[in-house]
């Protein structure tokens, strides 16, 4: 049940810092809504990502998914926590697609949402995506 563990305060601060730092490189020329995300894996590694928009709007990929996919490509499989940061007043909230992608690698995990003033909303994947569908459902097939 490692996913249920509470994060060390320094790890949480570092995760949020990396999400904010990533946010600076977000590519969001159409929405101008820049997002940075950082994922803490069970290994202790942190990967980050930004939203990448496209002139063909539907090809846009969120910061959260890019941060997760970066870790998967490095061999990571278990997410411990995710931080999402925006440089605005409104605290961000991951979209449904990103919640489901995080769910693939964590049945539950800490989710830290931070705005431009450094305010933090602390929540959990289970609260953001209740009664979720995940890999275990396919194990009996
Ligand atoms: O949690 C979120 C919400 C939105 N976006 C991106 C997608 C798009 O580029 C822009 C506006 O939706 O923000 C993210 O990266 N993460
Ligand atoms: Zn998303």
UniProtKB/TrEMBL annotation:
Which GO cellular component terms, listed alphabetically, does the Swiss-Prot or TrEMBL entry include? cytosol
Query: Is Hydrolase a UniProt keyword of this protein?
Result: yes
Residues noted as binding substrate in the record, renumbered to the chain = 51-57
> Which top class of enzyme applies to this chain?
hydrolase
Family matches, as Pfam families? dCMP_cyt_deam_1
Coiled-coil segments:
none
Q: Record's CDD domains?
A: cytidine_deaminase
**Active site residues according to the UniProt entry:** 64 (proton donor)
- Entry cofactors: Zn(2+)
Q: Which GO terms of type biological process are on file? A: nucleobase-containing small molecule metabolic process; pyrimidine-containing compound metabolic process
Q: Which UniProt keywords apply?
A: Hydrolase, Metal-binding, Zinc
Which PROSITE patterns does UniProt cross-reference here?
A: CYT_DCMP_DEAMINASES_1 (PS00903), CYT_DCMP_DEAMINASES_2 (PS51747)
Q: Which residues bind Zn(2+)?
A: 62, 95, 98
Q: Name the InterPro entries on file.
A: APOBEC/CMP_deaminase_Zn-bd, CMP_dCMP_dom, Cyt/Deoxycyt_deaminase, Cyt_deam_tetra, Cytidine_deaminase-like
Note the SUPFAM superfamilies from the entry: Cytidine deaminase-like
Recorded catalytic reaction(s): these are: 2'-deoxycytidine + H2O + H(+) = 2'-deoxyuridine + NH4(+); cytidine + H2O + H(+) = uridine + NH4(+)
Tell me the ranges covered by the CMP/dCMP-type deaminase domain, including all copies.
10-136
Out of the domains of life, which is the source? Bacteria
Give the EC number(s) listed in the UniProt record. 3.5.4.5
Molecular function via GO: cytidine deaminase activity; identical protein binding; zinc ion binding
Q: What does this protein do?
A: This enzyme scavenges exogenous and endogenous cytidine and 2'-deoxycytidine for UMP synthesis.
Q: Which family does it belong to?
A: Belongs to the cytidine and deoxycytidylate deaminase family.
**UniProt-recorded name of the protein:** Cytidine deaminase
Q: Give the organism, scientific name.
A: Dehalobacter restrictus
